[in-house]
Amino acid sequence: MKQALVDDTEDVSLDFGNEEELAFRKAKIRHPLATFFHLFFRVSAIVTYVCCDWFSRSFVGCFVTVLLLLSFDFWSVKNVTGRLMVGLRWWNQIDEDGKSHWIFEARKASPNQIAATEAEARIFWLGLIICPLIWIVFFFSTLFSLKLKWLALVIAGISLQAANLYGYILCKMGGESDISKVTARFLSQTVFQTASPSNFQKPGLEGLEIHKH
Question: Which stretches are transmembrane (predicted)?
Answer without folding.
Answer: 33-50, 56-75, 123-144, 150-171
